[in-house]
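Data's thin. Show one?
=====
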Amino acid sequence: MGKQAVRFASVVAPEQTRVDYHKVLPEAMRAMRGLEQAVHQSSLEAALLELVRLRASQLNRCAYCVDMHTKDARARGEREQRLYLVSAWREAPIYSARERAALAWCDALTLLPETGAPDQVYKELERVFSPKDIVALTLAIVAINGWNRFVVGLRAPVGDYVSPYGKPEASDLLRGLGSP
């Protein structure tokens, strides 16, 4: 097994929650929700934000958040193909210039030690977003990266999330009928 595989082996194995961070430090959760509230008050589209949250969660290997934001995006009407291709967005022509700029900015900030937030990525962002939207998008990326670190680091249980935005998925409905 290579060094990368060993490094993430414990993340993949199902484990019990290490700390119930909602109960232990509720003021931290209020602060995180405050970040989300500021993003929601911006003019950024909910669909774009879900794509960005999904992408950051993929990069951070946060199964809970991938599950959550996939379900939320679907409940809000996002097409499955677009969700499937987020992990390979650069090669998929189905994203708008605005979505591509947001996903590139998400990659750059989520992988900051490797990327250094390149000027070319920022220039493309400036072309399609206002300064206020750039700040709101950056805050959304900061927030999802923070949530990913809580969830992965403290091992929140994965799979039981139900989106508040619409009908449950068929797999959620079948869960009680003996399906996995």
Remarks:
- The chain has one domain: 25-157.
- The two ends are 29 Å apart (CA to CA).
- The chain has a mean pLDDT of 87.
